[in-house]
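ok so i was messing around last nite and threw this chain in just to see what happens. nothing serious, just curious
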Amino acid sequence: MAVPEWPPLAVVIVTYSSGKVVEGCLRSLDAALAGAGPARVVVVDNASADDTVERVREVAPEAEVIQTGRNAGFAAGVNAGIAAADGCDVLVLNPDIRLAPGSVLLLRQALALPGTGIAAPRLTGETGTLHLSLRRRPTVPRALGEALLGGHRAGRIPALGELVVDPAAYDRPQAVDWAAGAAWLVSRACLDALDPLDERYFLYSEETEYMLRAGEAGFAVRYEPRAVAVHLGGEQSTSSRLWALSSANRVRMHRERYGRPRGQLMRLAVGLNELARAVARGGAGGRRHRAALRQLVSLREWPLLPGEEGASPARTAEVSSARAKEISQSRATEASPARETAASPGYVCFSAQDWWYHNRAHSDFQLMRSVAAHRKVLVVNSIGMRMPMPGRSTQVLRRVGRKLRSVAMLVRRPLRELPGFYVMSPLPLPFYGSPLARRVNALLVRAQVLAVSRALGLRHPVIMVTIPTAWDVVRPMRRRALVFNRSDRHSSFPESDRPTIEALERGLLERSDHVVYVSTALMGEESGVTGDRAHFLDHGVDTDHFRRRPESEQPADLRAIPGPRVGFFGALDDYLVDFDLLERIAVELPGVSLVLIGDATVPMERLTRHPNVHWLGFRPYEQIPAYGSGFDVAIMPWLDNPWIRHSNPIKLKEYLALGLPVVSTDFQELASYADRVRIATDGDLFLDAVRATLRDGGLQPADTIRGSVLGASWASRAAQLMALAELSPGPR
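result:
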């Protein structure tokens, strides 16, 4: 059978005094690799005290043996093996694993599914007994549920248990939050996109942290039950030291991911679990739980390596600090929004939207939220492109009123989970047609932004500009780098003072350190100005948020609307949306319910007078996926104008992440989606495409449509932005 075009494969086995078990692991590889193509075998030995290395060389003379010279832990061993297997997919194995024949081929097939970064097999004991190896994301409520109900009882309720206990769940392939790390296959794309395993954990939780990180970067962890691995295991359940280390590392991981306050809550929850087990089992049966309690009460920052156990407290702190520094410097990003330094600058983003009343799905908000997981971020709400005036603007009083309410919010931290993310609304005077008024406005806005930036310690930030009117403000500001987020051609905005906005755009195009585009059409047109400073940075999508909800979780007002439903969510702006086309849908498809979700800048009576049109108005970002899940067809009925021709709507990936069939009018960035989206070049063809989609359900199955965007996370886009911005030479 021909082997598909996959990257080369390497099998990495980490050993530590594993002489008694590693032979069986190596001997199982020949049959396990059948049909999967050739594989390099890399054994990383962490200074074994027995004959492990000799046995490996005797049983598998072709294996590459890396002797680390010290026992730095499982993660360090895996990292060493990955480093030696450059360009390969990597199958990570414990030495006490016995792979079933053909299992590696099945794992590679699972890994080839769209959006997949890690594949894990079914784990069993020697007698074939199922090992419960699948896990949900660790949370404090789940740790409390396990403490109060026990792991197996809590596991029956997804919100209260981390362990997946339903045997039926282990019979079907599925994406999981994470899986036990005794055997797991990692794609080269995933390895290249992520930092190495975190070596500070020494043993336990390192694979949890890595798999969660993979999922957040858009790489699914997929369980494949047809691939079977026998896991001898059992040492953790009999060793008080290892059990205590496992419990303590659960707390450390939560602290590193979510900060010390939530880490303390996890510490209490895990401690309550261990206390309950210690009391219930008593005597020798509770020994490991008492050991865990002792570790949790006097929790070290990080576990000590072998040889460090007798160190003085001062030396322990010194070693722990040095190891943490070494790991953090090796990472492309940091674990928390620390103070601004040359190596980790803060960010100030001049947004084209307003956090307090626009849809928070816009790219500048999404990118900055992801950046704020690693850096301090100040988002400056939109300073506008002209003052709303009667006769040239719609809903003037409403626009002025909501901006004043936004300014009254001052500076806030709107997201509890992101303590380094700040939003401010300066008071602007957006009279951009007058040179004098522009200078006064720039001085006014700059003074407000600088005052807040200094209070937050942002003295040499990376400045990202999405709205061109910010050029007057940022031109003299000290900064680490200037990034122009060229998401749209704002001079094409109908209400803008075109010559003024074009001049501001030109200034940013010529003077920015980097210009990032979401439109290849716009990027090509401006390449003569931007040269090698231009970079394509496609939109991402929050795939965890935009997932299909069952009908029972869809809003009641949507469920009350009869099907089939043709739906749209987003801003109903008169310079974007073809309202004539929407009315044609209502008139020519009377048996269809047209569902519109979003704020509108025009009177909607022309549509709502039709009985099959249901305009639900604005809905919070948090509720949008539940509404979209009830659409039978998702539509993008755009006007044909310069704004749309240079656009790349985030909505497209959100529709696809929900697995929805999509019908859209044509624009350049759709070319690469023609296999998933029905594209219409006029109104008649648009209606025909809607009818065809209602009839056959779309061009591809829902799972395939969703899988096509699983790798496009906002976290990965933010990482690209940070790598680009922080390569600039330094403050100026």
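not much to say yet. The chain is about 40% helix and 15% strand.
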